[in-house]
Structure formats: structure tokens, C-alpha cells
Specification:
The complex is a heterodimer of chains A (251) and B (261).
Chain A lengths: L2 E11 L2 E11 L5 H11 L19 E4 L2 E4 L13 E5 L6 E3 L2 E2 L2 H8 L19 H10 L7 H5 L1 H4 L11 H11 L9 H6 L11 H5 L6 H18 L1 H8 L7
Parallel strand pairs in A: 1-5
Antiparallel strand pairs in A: 1-2, 3-4, 3-5, 6-7
Helix pairs in contact in A: 3-6, 6-9
Chain B lengths: L22 H23 L4 E2 L2 E2 L31 H4 L1 H8 L2 H10 L30 H21 L13 H18 L2 H9 L8 H14 L2 H24 L9
Antiparallel strand pairs in B: 1-2
Classes of the chains: A alpha+beta (251), B mainly alpha (261).
């Protein structure tokens, strides 16, 4: 079932740009990325788009389709009506390089600020022993493909550029949660999460969870448990008292 | 600064979403405002909250001397100096529990505070600091409201069982009111036990589940409930209002409580 779809694609760079209209052929079974590639092949050979696996696993083709952060390769065309205008823009939280390609360096800078996994003293690589039940929570977070849709949709930085310095974003919070819940990580990630990475700025409105293509329960399984762990060490007077009188060692 | 900060793709629209994204925040405002108006009216009314053996969940436990005779399960320790409605003595606790609830926070931050109104929809505020300052640091007291909430749930469950009596206080009877109070208590238990703080207390703070098999089991059960927390939050909110309204209707004589046996 072939039809001609109406596409509006943002074209431009950091000096300016705008939405450009296209009429383009759509065939059965295609996804938005296929249509963008057809535009490149037939009408706009210089259209810039980042992509790689076309299977929803590399996290490269993140964009906003009809205003919603999506992977273009996982957005099927049959989810739109044939007469619907499909608007494709680059991620709106990061600086644009050209057309649909943005500079996502912010995320790599933030990732570098999180200290790596730190095994206890005297335990060498190869000597790690742990049970599956102890690491399975962290394994959910390892599904992250770093598409940065969660970072892009988070209003803390999307609507407030000035917060980028203090706020690491949901992708980094699942990394911190993964490490803090790890049975062999010896660093305390709780205070660090709150004071250095801006966990307290998150108001748990769950947009990160809604857009995650890997369906990681970012808010319920990482951010809220981390907030509760922060309460343990910073805001709960009874647990603080317990730590002082030796009833709650390790806090 | 907004989504059109320098260097980003210059798009004037705050959102390009074409779906009805405003429907959910609008619905949340409508339901929560309705509840607030109804609960405020009922809390200040100070009447029609007890008719043997039914007591409204808004007034239980009734702690002031001004409470209707036989309505005070725990006695009247507050005494006669309290002249306002007895509901005002206790409602701060369930209110605090819901205000600091992780789910309700999402709901009212989105719908009332518009921060953000929906995903990828620009928020109206120029500045944002999240939950890093007072009064929002008080959201961290949620676990304490959770513990107090368990006491209320226990009392409301007892109220439900006390409703297996008739108007004269004879045991072995059951009415629609009994079902109403027990359903309300059940929904409140489900809401409390599916709470994120409960999940944390059960085992969320542990890093070695294998060393605590019982707590791991409890954490697993609460985690299962936790996925339904939003549902329980709404059902229990509506349930408590309906239970109160039913008791009021019976207490005013607008309807009579139908007894099954």
C-alpha cells in the first residue's frame, strides 16, 4: 500500500533554519527513518541525519517526530494517518549541528564526571563473586542504548539551559543507581548523586520513562530508589541517629 | 531560558505535539480539585459523620470531646478545648501522605504547576530548582507519613469490622455500609503497601538480597504492587470520598443502610 505522505523536516544549523515541506512516497512496513532516507535519495541529498543500526539498538537516530522524542527507526509509518503531516525535528535540548544532527557531547561530559565502578580493596578483577539476585536490579539499567531521549525530554534541562551545569540527567541517574545498588561497588553514590549530579532537581514527572525505547523504568526503579537512599543519609533524622549510635553501620 | 536557547534548533513552537497532551493534566486538575472542594467542605462540616455502626473515614479516629457519642474508637484525648471540626485534627496526616507521594507529586507538578504540563511541552516557568529547596525538601518526609498512614489504615480496618454490627451494637450483621468501609480500607492498604517508601523499607535499601531472603521476598511482592501504585492512588482517593458520602447519606437519613443479614 503505497501513498504520498506530507513531511515537514527541520533544516538548518546553529545560525538558523526552519521547517521545510516535502511530499514523499511511503510503502507498507516502512519507518520514519526509511522516509528520511528516501528524501535524501530523491529530494534532499544534503539532508544530514545520524543513523546506524536501523534496529533500535544503537541509539543514533534519535529525533522528535510530531513533537515526541523517538527513535526514527522504531517509529512505524502506519501509526500515522495517510493525510497526517509528519513533522521531524532534531532533538531540541542539545545544540544543533545540521538538520537532524545534534551535538550530544553534554551527555559524555556528564558520564565522565561519574567515578567508575570501584571494587572493595583486596578484590582483584577476576575475583568478583556475587549472586544473580544481587545484580539483577542493576542489569535493567545496562539495557540503556544511550539514545539520550530521556536526557532530551527532561524538562530540567530542556526548558532551562542554565541547569545543564548542575544536572546530570536521567541517563546518569540510572548509572549512579546501577553502581549504588551493585553489591561490590565500594563507593557511596548517594551524597554524590544529590550534591554533585543534581538528583534533587528531578521532580519525578516520569517523561524519561515514557520515552525510553528500552522500556527501562527509569523513575520507579532508579531515580525514586536513589531519592529514598539519599533520604536515608541526608534527611531522615532517625536513620541519622541510628548511624551515630552504631545501630545502622554503613550509612 | 527556554527550549529555544542559543545553539539549539530554532523552532518557535513550545511543542510540536499533535496529540491531545493536555487531556491528562486537565483530567488530573478536575479530579483533584473536585476532591479538595468536597473534602474541605466535609472536614469543616463537623456533622453527619457517624451513625451506629458506621463512621466516616474523614473523622476516624474521632479524638475531640465534641465527637458524637460512641464515635471515638480511641477515646477523646484531645479534650474539650478543640472546638473546630474533629476531622481537622487528623486529616493533615493522610493529606501529608498524599502530598508527598511520589505518584501524586508527578500528577500535581504536571497538572497544577505545569512543570512540565506534558512530556516535550514547554513549561511556563523562567527558573527551576526542583526539589532542592524548602518547602519542597519536605517531600523527603514521605516515609514518616507512610508509617503514620499504616496506623490510620489499621483503625479504618477496625471501623470496617465494627460495622459487622447492627444499629444497637449487636454482632453478626452485615450491611452495604460494612462493604463500603471494608472496600475503602482495602484500597487504602493497597495504596500504602504499593508506596515507593514501603518498597524501600522492605528491601530497596539493601545491596545484598541474597543475604536477606525474607526481605527480598517482601521487596518483590511490594515491587509487584508498586507498578499499580498510580491506580491505587486514584481508586483509594475516590474510594475514601465515596465512603464518606455514603456514611453522610445514611447519617442524614437520605438513605437507609441495607442489611444483608
Amino acid at each position: 500500500m503505497t501513498y504520498t505522505a506530507k513531511f515537514r523536516v527541520w533544516r538548518g544549523d546553529d545560525t538558523g533554519g526552519g521547517l521545510v515541506d516535502f511530499a514523499v512516497e511511503v510503502n507498507e512496513g516502512e519507518v520514519v527513518l526509511d522516509i528520511i532516507h528516501r528524501l535524501q535519495a530523491t529530494q534532499a541529498p544534503d539532508l544530514a541525519v545520524r543513523w546506524n543500526c536501523k534496529a533500535g539498538k544503537c541509539g543514533s537516530c534519535s529525533a522528535e517526530v510530531n513533537g515526541l522524542p523517538r527513535l526514527m527507526c522504531m517509529t512505524r509509518m502506519n501509526t500515522f494517518a495517510e493525510d497526517e503531516v509528519v513533522t521531524v525535528t532534531p532533538l531540541r535540548t542539545f545544540p544543533v549541528i545540521r538538520d537532524l544532527v545534534t551535538n550530544v557531547s553534554f551527555n559524555y561530559i556528564k558520564a565522565r564526571q561519574i567515578p567508575a565502578f570501584a571494587p572493595p580493596a583486596g578484590v582483584a578483577p577476576g575475583d568478583y563473586r556475587m549472586q544473580q539476585v544481587d545484580v539483577q536490579r542493576s542489569q535493567e539499567f545496562r539495557k540503556c542504548i544511550e539514545c539520550f531521549l530521556c536526557q532530551n525530554t527532561c524538562h530540567v534541562i530542556r526548558d532551562h539551559e542554565e541547569n545543564k551545569e548542575a544536572f546530570a540527567g536521567p541517563r546518569m541517574f540510572i548509572r549512579l543507581a546501577e553502581l549504588d545498588m551493585h553489591p561490590l561497588d565500594s563507593k557511596d553514590r548517594k551524597v554524590e548523586a544529590q550534591e554533585d549530579h543534581g538528583l534533587g532537581m528531578c521532580n519525578i514527572t516520569k517523561c524519561c520513562t515514557e520515552v525510553c525505547p528500552e522500556h527501562i523504568k527509569i523513575t520507579d526503579n532508579a531515580i525514586i530508589p536513589m531519592k529514598e537512599r539519599v533520604v536515608d543519609v541526608k534527611y531522615d533524622p532517625l536513620r541519622w541517629l541510628g548511624s551515630k549510635i552504631g545501630k545502622r553501620p554503613g550509612l | 531560558m527556554s527550549v529555544t536557547a542559543p545553539g539549539r534548533a530554532q523552532i518557535a513552537a513550545k511543542t510540536l505535539r499533535t496529540d491531545k497532551w493536555w487531556l491528562q493534566p486537565l483530567g488530573t486538575v478536575a479530579v483533584l480539585l473536585s476532591f479538595i472542594v468536597y473534602a474541605t467542605w466535609r472536614a469543616f462540616e463537623g456533622a453527619h459523620y457517624f451513625t451506629e455502626p458506621l463512621i466516616s473515614p474523614f473523622y476516624s479516629p474521632c479524638l475531640a470531646t465534641s465527637c458524637v457519642e460512641k464515635s471515638s474508637l480511641l477515646g477523646t484525648p484531645v479534650g474539650a478545648w478543640w472546638t473546630l471540626s474533629p476531622a481537622l485534627l487528623i486529616l493533615v496526616f493522610p493529606l501529608g501522605f498524599r502530598m508527598t507521594c511520589y505518584y501524586y507529586r508527578k500528577a500535581y507538578y504536571r497538572s497544577f504547576w505545569q512543570s512540565p504540563p506534558a512530556c516535550a511541552v514547554g513549561e511556563p516557568h523562567k527558573k527551576y530548582t526542583g526539589e532542592t529547596r524548602q518547602p519542597l525538601l519536605l517531600q523527603n518526609s514521605h516515609r514518616y507519613f507512610f508509617y503514620i498512614g499504616l496506623v490510620f489504615n489499621t483503625l479504618l480496618t477496625i471501623d470496617g469490622f465494627l460495622a459487622f454490627r447492627d444499629h444497637e451494637g449487636n454482632w453478626g450483621h452485615m450491611s452495604v455500609g460494612t462493604l463500603v468501609l471494608l472496600t475503602n480500607a482495602t484500597l487504602l492498604w493497597l495504596y500504602s503497601l504499593s508506596c515507593h517508601s514501603c518498597r524501600h523499607a522492605m528491601g530497596g535499601r539493601l545491596n545484598h538480597f541474597s543475604k536477606h531472603p525474607l526481605r527480598y521476598k517482601m521487596w518483590t511482592l511490594v515491587s509487584r504492587l508498586n507498578t499499580h501504585h498510580p491506580k491505587f492512588a486514584w481508586f483509594s482517593l475516590i474510594g475514601v470520598a465515596l465512603a464518606d458520602y455514603y456514611v453522610r447519606c445514611v447519617a442524614t437519613g437520605a438513605i437507609s443502610d441495607f442489611y444483608f443479614f
